[in-house]
Amino acid sequence: MGQTMIEKIIGAHTSESVHPGKTVWMEIDVRSARDFGGANVVKNFQTHYPGEIVDDVKKTFFTFDCVVPANTIPYASNQQTCRDFAKDQGIKLYDVDAGIGSHVDIEEGLALPGGVIVGTDSHLNIMGAVGAFGQGMGDQDIAFAFKAGKTWFEVPPTMKVTIKGDLPENCTAKDLTLEVVRVLGSKGALGRAVEFYGDAIDKLSLPGRITLASMATEMGAITGLLPPNQEVIDYCTQRADGRSVRPYYADEDANYVKELTIDISELTPRIASPPKPDNVSPVSDLANQTIDGVFIGSCTNGSYKDISEVAKFVKGKKVFPGVMAKVVPATREIYGKLLGEGHIQTLYDSGFIVSNPGCGGCASGQIGMTGKGEVQVSTSNRNFTGKQGAGDTYLASPMTAAASAILGRIGTASEVV
Amino acid sequence: MPSTKFKGRAWVILDEQGEIIDDIDTDMIFHNSYLAITEIEKMGQYTFDNLEGYKDFAQKAKPGDLVFVGANFGSGSSRQQAVGCFRSLGVSCIVANSYGAIYKRNAINSGFPILTIKDINFTDPNEPGMIKSGDELEIDLEKATIHRDGLQVGTLEPFSKVQKDIYMAGDIFEYAKEL
Q1: pLDDT higher than 90, residue B112
Q2: Which of A228, A263, A298 is the last residue before a domain boundary?
Q3: A183: domain CATH number?
Q4: Is the complex ipTM higher than 0.85?
């Protein structure tokens, strides 16, 4: 019997036989904690392993991204707790300037195709973008992984989603992603791994892959995996610091619990209305909705591609009076590239606020939250009640968010003259 | 040895239409504005304070209570506090149709019993055995059953082996010592 991608990846990290439903002990290549949950990881580690050291300091990391720099004393104290622990143990820490941990993991070559990466970030399944298995975990799980270097894992069944047709020119990877979330719903892939196939998937660039993989969480999936293409393999190889890059692909006779085809040839820009990510409709259905702000960034849409395309689109145009337009690059590397290419100047001239890298709008980050009654278009991944503040959050692509910022209402790029 | 039988008062988490609520995410259970909290004693007071209709849950909950919810409970973030807050209040266990993947691990690893529903009637008063808030129920983990006044009113999925082993050991840390 052939194996799916997740079965092969797990199989490469355990000596046990692997099949869906079986619990195996799995070696972990990267064990990380953020400022979110990080202090609790340290507390759990120190409680259960007093005076002991982590399993492998070269595989253990802290990545600060949630509230960077800290804007409350408790957050600042939690970050300091992590810094002190990291210093004691000799653990590498990506501090408040570095950006979103999952993106840093890929940029720094820590997350490679075929790898297993765990951390206190529920969107760590972003690693599916490079054909790696990323898994968000709580702070006890991660404290245990810091010490043991491995953990138990129940091998999930895999479902196969084939995307049929080419992505229309006015649509982006986010529109494709929202369409998949709409079709699957919040529980459509619950407890499963999802593999994505089709011409449109093959052609997706790494940032687009990140967008799709990041929202596997919102489909209920354990992880969403995209078979790495040459661009991904080349990118990761360049950053692997000499380590070999070994992608895993599903066997032809792999066993899927469910197969589904989604046709995107007639897709139009999509938007998810509050309070659920799967509450998806065409952007045109909401054209009368006025807005108070936009947030362009997050692990889902904070890439150089996302933000540079927005900058090129808004060049010479102005943000609608009274609209707060916030841009947060995912990482310091992206920020530097945007700066070097003049895109930050363009965004500034158009009336955007550009902040330092990090998670930004999600989880009370550095660019603040929405107030009661405030309507925001966000490029992030969750619009749950209260998640990005007390207001209403709509999820859309960076292009739709940028167009909405200029129109002062929800709208698509094609409506902007 | 952790208890395998619980007796307590039921909370059936229904919406305004009387349906069991699905997709209760971690921001509804324990909002992100309290994430800097690391002490378990302080977590309980914020339980469900962003869940419409249950914002006073923490004031009304009593140790030993049993909480019944719908599908995909605890979807969303990796925050352990969303499990810790129930422990903090002394809630005995959670019973749901299904769980978010990370939530499930967090509960299992911390030795907090979460149970999956096989067959329970929450909504049809014409059928026997409807469970409602305030009922005094008995849950038997080993038999995977729910009883009220000596009569069986529900069946549950049995614990998986790893869940049972970790639960009996206390938590993931204690369990790993036995390996």
Answers
A1: yes
A2: A263
A3: 3.40.1060.10
A4: yes
The residues with which A273 forms a beta bridge, in sequence order, are none
Q: Chain B partners of A384 at a C-beta cutoff of 8 Å?
A: 25, 27-28, 76
Q: What is the mean pLDDT of chain A?
A: 96
Both A101 and A188 in one domain: the answer is no
Residue of B71, B106, B161 with shortest CB distance to A138:
B106
Q: At what angle do helices A206-214 and A304-314 cross, to 10 degrees?
A: 110
Tokens for A375, please give them.
């309507």
Closest CA to B68 of B87, B94, B48, B88: B94
Residues of A in contact with B110 (CB under 8 A): 138, 140
CATH of the domain at B52: 3.20.19.10
Closest CA relative to residue A302, chosen from A398, A177, A203, A414: A398
Q: Which pLDDT band, with edges at 50, 70 and 90, does A364 fall under? A: confident
> A204 and A311, same structural domain?
no
Give the pLDDT confidence of A376-395 residue by residue, as tens digits. 999 999 998 877 888 999 99
Q: Do B36 and A78 touch (CB under 8 A)?
A: yes
Query: Which CATH number belongs to the domain containing residue A330 in this structure?
Result: 3.30.499.10
Question: How far does the CA of residue A262 sit from the closest CA of chain B (Å)?
Answer: 24
Domain of residue A332: give its range: 271-415
Picking from A121, A139, A186, the nearest residue to B80 by CB comes out as: A139
- Determine the structural domain holding residue B150 and report its residue range: 5-177
Provide φ and ψ at A27, rounded to 5°: -70, 145
Q: Average of pLDDT values for A186-190?
A: 92
Q: Do A140 and B98 touch (CB under 8 A)?
A: no
